[in-house]
Amino acid sequence: MANGESTAGTDAPAGGFVQLLTPDGERIDSVTTADGTTYSVDFTDDEYRELYRDLVTVRRLDAEATALQRQGELGIWASLLGQEAAQVGSGRAMRPQDMAFPTYREHGVLYTRGIDPIMPFGLFRGVDQGGWDANEHRFNGYTIVIGSQTLHATGYAMGVTMDGKTGSPDGEAVIAYFGDGATSQGEVNEAFVWAGVFHAPMVFFCQNNQYAISEPLERQTRIPLYRRAAGYGFPGVRIDGNDVLASFAVTRAALDNARNGQGPTLIEAYTYRMGAHTSSDDPTRYRIASEVESWKAKDPISRLRAFLAKQQLGDDSFFDEVDESAKTLALSLRERVLSMPDPQPISMFDNVYPHGSPELDLQRSQFADYHASFEGSDH
Amino acid sequence: MMAETITIGKALNHGLRRSLEHDSKVVIMGEDVGKLGGVFRITDGLQKDFGEDRVIDTPLAEAGIVGTAVGLAIRGYRPVCEIQFDGFVFPAYNQIVAQVAKMFYRSMGKVRLPIVIRIPFGGGIGAVEHHSESPEAYFSHTPGLKVVTCSNPADAYSMIQQAIRSDDPIVFFEPKRRYWEKGEVDLDADLAGAYPLHEARVAREGTDATLIAYGPMVRTCLDAATAAAEDGRNLEVIDLRTLSPVDYDKIYSSVRRTGRAVVVHEAPGNIGLGAELAARITEHCFYSLEAPVLRVTGYDIPYPAARVEEEYLPDLDRVLDAVDRSFGW
Ligand SMILES: Cc1ncc(C[n+]2csc(CCOP(=O)(O)OP(=O)(O)O)c2C)c(N)n1
């Protein structure tokens, strides 16, 4: 099985990766991997500009969330800083009928699905369970227990096959997101086994941001992650995760292969978590500043901006306008988050069972009576 | 005697350190336990002082952490596994209940598994889902496991050491919302003189009713007892310390004196530890009881959103309300 060993790009890890846009903003026309697949993109000027707008917007929304957390308005926040290209590229590569299963950091993918960015804030503010309609948005709920969603995605993809929705260009495909740490979980390995055996229309999209909280990649694997796919019988491709074009091109191809009945692909997006793991984490305990600095030079946004400028696809007024509209969106998000009401305590009894339960109805009414007994007191 | 005022978290850290010093076969393993010192810093500084072979940063795989601990234990090691949060123990659940719990029985007494599985548990820290659970009943229900939890720094310090020296597999629940609570600990104390691991302790003596609690709820019950004293009610508080096996004698003798019992825990009430305790007390103290054994527990719902968790968790008022109901019987 050809494992898609990739052509080296600028600053590539050993073994190379697919890169279509260098950190300096140079466009690489196309890349052919060892298995003979050629990856490229064919964007209009406007499409390039819209991708840039996505990246900037997503980063700005994330920065606003980080600020809200620091001001005590969110209990916790998992920032995507540095991972915008992996998320926007792969998210935009999905077609409307495709389905995504995220972890808890995929705010950028969520945005590309056209979902109101307010969606995850209830969960992180602690006012609700973050519930949105997975089927309506074709984007499942956030999953905090590491790796669980990869099995859900695989099962969903098996359902796509059973419904006869594969084998044609308008078929459906499924993408599951997870981190490098997640690849150590038994459940993720079981998802690989199942997807391989059942030839499921799946794309496994691993954002290798080099750390699982404090633990570096070497604590999870001795070989590049994309090579694991070969052991399960499907192709693995590594991309420059800070290159939105490579992320788009490879994910689009893998999703199209899946929908056309060619089974799963593992994509390893080689990237870096620029911030803390979450707002509760202290990265100075386990990584050095120079490492962060070296990744800053590979920033996903500045390279696309350099490309746009060089190609005269964007000038200062365009860049300013994008910044300004991202800021406006972020500020309106802030307003909305601040005005999210605390839940009514009694609502915690809702949605335990679709048709309720007599025992729970009793507990609910006892809870109401107990609270009524404090009325007028300063409880 | 070198008594120091330290937090529960620090006491556990000292206890782990002493265990590593005491026995070269003790190893600590888990996610982020090394350089980071664990997400709660309970293992802070231990890898630096004992090395990467004694304090092992593992891959992100709970079944792996506990499953390899089984092999290490068979090989003569004494693994101390850290599960990062209560809600993440379930990938390891199969290993714990189907393997760890049964190995001694299955080997007809030939293979001992001196494994300690540390789990920060319970709510009250404003976390997102899966970070505030109380799964103790699942483990207490499993024969072959011992389940313990501490409620103060002195117990934290001695109990973690006793658990590590014990030949039984022990699930060690740490009350995470109390990690920062301080108390006196004698760091030089000889373990031989320590309070026995599997005995309950009367945390406050009283005559009018018995509150039975463990882990995070012991503090809540002590506060309730202080409040009740202002109203002239003298409540006894028992800290179970071990959830399996329960030290029933201490409970029975208390309830026979006071005639009233209220069991308090954060976990949902349905099929929980409180149900077992109420049944046993009824069976053994029936003629001494002035009222049925009452329970104050979490509701039978998944752990709710952080902004309403204070309504979910038993608090001083709910405990006092139950005491009132007991007296009103
Ligand atoms: C089963 C499980 N174990 C532990 C955790 C605690 N935890 C949350 S995120 C994380 C690291 C995840 O790393 P990775 O999969 O690389 O994803 P990243 O957060 O870096 O995107 C850990 C250990 C968890 N959420 N679930």
Automatic annotation (TrEMBL), chain A:
EC number: 1.2.4.1
Pfam family, one: E1_dh
Gene Ontology BP annotations: branched-chain amino acid catabolic process
GO molecular function, one term: magnesium ion binding
Residue ranges of domain Dehydrogenase E1 component in the record: 56-327
Keywords: Oxidoreductase, Pyruvate, Thiamine pyrophosphate
Name assigned to this protein: Pyruvate dehydrogenase E1 component alpha subunit
Highest taxon of source: Bacteria
UniProt cofactor(s): thiamine diphosphate
SUPFAM superfamilies: Thiamin diphosphate-binding fold (THDP-binding) (SSF52518)
